[in-house]
């Protein structure tokens, strides 16, 4: 949590994901990693014979974990609500028992809408240090989870550094590393290579994994008449593998085995939408919806084994087709938390897809999506740099908060109210400090009125002193009060 | 219209508002003004005795004007539809008979969603040349109308330059200049000063005027318990005047007279929402809705005199309260075109209100709003500069186009489809040229892969060559074709 001290003496408490990095009293050393908050909690737990407990199995037995307590405090809700939502499969707590560094968080419709930031190098660009820096940077701007999508060199090492330093849960897409292990040759992929990769990542502490087990062989022909084919990397890799081998998706065939591995570490499934639409034209088509149905079936199998499940969603969807995505997902996937990429509401603005998709993200969040995967301005064009990560995060924190307001999340509006009060009372410094991005708000104001007295001024350069409507409102309220005092009814 | 020539030889035709400024064959001279497209049309019209015809009176008599023909071509709709929507009061064609320079356009739910850009100096900053430059710049990025909100020095002169050089209709808020005329003293305002100001602006060629005639004396106390009072400049000025004088709004009292003046020039009313909410807390409150009802009544009076009418709307509104705004406006204002500012869907992000409001703008456009007034990143903080104008325009063109798609506007999706085709076929140059902002799209791509061959490459730096899902899709389609040819069913 972050406390903003106002000039009035009041304090506003905001949800904060940046862990020790914004705590002035904590020194962080990237080589040592951050403190292991969960270590004593995990150590204190009785290990059951046969298999590891998961947050889901605890919840189903009515037990409250330390993670749930932490979350209840953060979200400002009763801990029983956290437990019950997890037990019902409507919320997940991604928290690998091998990842003690994280501050636990919950993903579910009943809670604050979360934002995930994708980072990770590609073969073309970026280094380990840069990706760790991006992770810290993303949480500084409010990322609730991060996904390490590295596909280039040093995948294991990059992930190790990110895991040991991340205060938020970390997700991956194991098929990327599996493909690197077979030299990038899709046809050489196999269940065995994949399984070993998943084990390696579970051991390291990955909290949730995107698994494209729903891309079944029969669905691939459904994408033939699409404008943009298969745009999920994992989806396209598995489709190519199935065609090369003339066989069913090995992730589908081995789903039970895979589930048993994830259970051992309490790793959460993020069942990937390998056939999500990559253009407005392809939205809500047969391929997408066929896969969604399969994801629902797989989710039931996983939860039977006490493994937590989220379901991934699109993509590119025009506004009038967004609600259908949420309704179908709830119905087909038993209200498992929905985790969507955007969606982008138009294809015409490469370079601004953080905006085309913030529109869709805000709406889909309002309709019930639990976590939004951010899109940066570089989408479709290149690997995001630090500035892109920031712009993507800000657009998505706006979308998530707008959704929290629209859902009527208790407490969400307190932030807006505090900022509006500061604005109306011309407490400029308070307005800046409460802003999602204080530096930018301050620097925009200071571009035209940099002098210190302007921080108390009853106007800014937008309307100027004569036309400042808020200043005039104060004046007319004073006039009104004077009239009232004189007994003249205004 | 703008034609984009693709590398395939195909052409994509896009709606364009930039007039002669982007036509390489036309030289423009800001001192001479641009060509007077409408001059012969206006000259050829018979003047009826007693009073000037308006687009509305023509339409009501079933007559088709040259403006309607021009618009029908631009919008790709039958001219009868333009006429009928205008006749019904569901659409307006803001086109002062004294403003021959504009390329006519229509504002109505049945047509493409339009975007207005506010420009104009304030007492604190900016010059005439800068404001003309902003106007040209705003239309370059797609502004369908511009409002000159100048409040500083040289209001008349600034407006003259803008009018003589603008290819799009120009709106104003006459109370601003009226207030400057009385030295900024609200209590010295009068109907006479206001009327003379309106006449001066009508003569100059202003196409539509924001008139806050709906801020009635009885509504001011309804704002007392608001978080942010009255945030419309015009609204706060008139409220202060009413309290100072203990009298009804002079715009309400003289509305018939004012309407007669506007009719003479075919100036369109934009009935201002002086009591729009300035914060999430104040959204859809009693003050706002009381005024809206009055705007509906005033609209009926104006249309009886054949004066065209738009209705202005909020402001700050959380997502779940947006639809109610549109439904009430339609019902109370007889489907007159709605023209909204944003709305901002949260207050927490000063510096990014082009994004907080693009979310609301896209949604309200989908629900039926005819024109969106842009919000720039400087909202609440200062006067926008050229870069802010561009960022505001782009966010709003995205919102308007997303709304056109969601409304199922015929032809809207062709743009998305052309861009998605180019993307899937790795025609990078076509993708850039079709983008809303080609320069930015190209420069983002080139940041990591600047070399010329990368413009044909079947990947970019986002996923890299091994993981480019679109490249893999092409490969699997080839594999599939090979199998089909060999008689092996995949
Ligand atoms: S001048 Fe305008 S934007 Fe600035 S504080 Fe006053 S009302 Fe707000
Ligand atoms: S590398 Fe990724 S972002 Fe780039 S063209 Fe291929 S699929 Fe699109």
UniProtKB/TrEMBL annotation, chains A, B:
One of the GO BP terms on file: thiamine diphosphate biosynthetic process
Cofactor(s) recorded in Swiss-Prot or TrEMBL: [4Fe-4S] cluster
Pathway the protein contributes to: Cofactor biosynthesis; thiamine diphosphate biosynthesis
Keywords from the UniProt entry: 4Fe-4S, Iron, Iron-sulfur, Lyase, Metal-binding, S-adenosyl-L-methionine, Thiamine biosynthesis, Zinc
UniProt: [4Fe-4S] cluster binding residues: 460, 463, 468
EC number, as in UniProt: 4.1.99.17
Domain of life: Bacteria
Catalytic reaction(s) noted: 5-amino-1-(5-phospho-beta-D-ribosyl)imidazole + S-adenosyl-L-methionine = 4-amino-2-methyl-5-(phosphooxymethyl)pyrimidine + CO + 5'-deoxyadenosine + formate + L-methionine + 3 H(+)
Binding annotation for substrate: 118, 147, 176, 212, 232-234, 273-276, 312, 339
Cofactor note: Binds 1 [4Fe-4S] cluster per subunit. The cluster is coordinated with 3 cysteines and an exchangeable S-adenosyl-L-methionine.
Any one GO cellular component localisation term in the record: cytosol
GO molecular function, one term: zinc ion binding
ThiC-associated domain segment(s): 10-45
Residues annotated as binding Zn(2+): 316, 380
Pfam families referenced in this protein's UniProt entry, alphabetically: ThiC-associated (PF13667), ThiC_Rad_SAM (PF01964)
InterPro entries on file: ThiC, ThiC-associated_dom, ThiC/Bza_core_dom, ThiC/BzaA/B
UniProt function note: Catalyzes the synthesis of the hydroxymethylpyrimidine phosphate (HMP-P) moiety of thiamine from aminoimidazole ribotide (AIR) in a radical S-adenosyl-L-methionine (SAM)-dependent reaction.
Family, as annotated: Belongs to the ThiC family.
HAMAP family per UniProt: ThiC (MF_00089)
Protein name from the UniProt record: Phosphomethylpyrimidine synthase
Organism: Actinocrinis puniceicyclus
């Amino acid at each position: 949590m972050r406390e903003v001290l106002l000039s009035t003496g009041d304090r506003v408490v905001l949800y904060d994901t940046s862990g020790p990095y914004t705590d002035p009293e904590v020194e962080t050393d990237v080589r040592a990693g951050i403190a292991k908050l969960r270590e004593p909690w995990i150590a204190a737990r009785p290990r059951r014979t046969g298999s590891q407990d998961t947050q889901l199995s605890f919840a189903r037995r009515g037990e409250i974990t330390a993670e749930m307590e932490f979350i209840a405090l953060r979200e400002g809700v009763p801990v029983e609500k956290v437990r019950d939502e997890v037990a019902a499969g409507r919320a997940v707590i991604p928290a690998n028992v091998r990842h003690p560094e994280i501050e636990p968080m919950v993903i579910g419709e009943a809670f604050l809408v979360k934002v995930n930031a994708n980072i990770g190098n590609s073969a073309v660009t970026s280094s380990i240090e840069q990706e760790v820096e991006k992770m810290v940077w993303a949480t500084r701007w409010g990322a609730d989870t991060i996904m390490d999508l590295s596909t280039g060199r040093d995948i294991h090492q990059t992930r190790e550094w990110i895991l040991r330093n991340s205060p938020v849960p970390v997700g991956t897409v194991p098929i990327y590393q599996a493909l690197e292990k077979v030299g990038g040759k899709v046809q050489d992929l196999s269940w065995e290579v994949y399984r070993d990769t998943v084990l390696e990542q579970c051991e390291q502490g990955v909290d949730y994994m995107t698994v494209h087990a729903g891309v079944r062989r029969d669905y691939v022909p459904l994408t033939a008449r699409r404008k943009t084919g298969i745009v999920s990397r994992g989806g396209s890799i598995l489709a190519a593998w199935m065609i090369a081998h003339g066989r069913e998706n090995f992730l589908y065939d081995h789903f039970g085995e895979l589930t048993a591995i994830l259970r051992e570490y309490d790793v959460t499934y993020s069942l990937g939408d390998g056939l999500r639409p990559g253009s407005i034209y392809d939205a809500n088509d047969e391929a997408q919806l066929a896969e969604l149905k399969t994801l629902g079936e797989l989710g039931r199998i996983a939860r039977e084994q006490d493994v937590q499940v989220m379901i991934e969603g699109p993509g590119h969807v025009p506004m009038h087709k967004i609600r259908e995505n949420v309704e179908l997902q709830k119905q087909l996937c038993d209200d498992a938390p929905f985790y969507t990429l955007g969606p982008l509401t138009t294809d015409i603005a490469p370079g601004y897809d953080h905006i085309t998709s913030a529109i869709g993200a805000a709406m889909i969040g309002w309709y019930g999506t639990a976590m939004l995967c951010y899109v940066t301005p570089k989408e479709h064009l290149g690997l995001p740099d630090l500035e892109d990560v920031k712009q993507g995060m800000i657009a998505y924190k706006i979308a998530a908060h707008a959704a929290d307001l629209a859902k009527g999340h208790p407490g969400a509006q307190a932030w807006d109210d505090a900022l509006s009060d500061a604005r109306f009372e011309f407490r400029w410094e308070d307005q800046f400090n409460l802003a999602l991005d204080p530096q930018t708000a301050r620097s925009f104001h200071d571009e035209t009125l940099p002098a210190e007295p302007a921080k108390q001024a009853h106007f800014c350069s937008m309307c100027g002193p004569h036309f400042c409507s808020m200043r005039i409102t104060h004046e007319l309220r004073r006039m009104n009060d004077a009239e009232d005092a004189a007994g003249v009814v205004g």
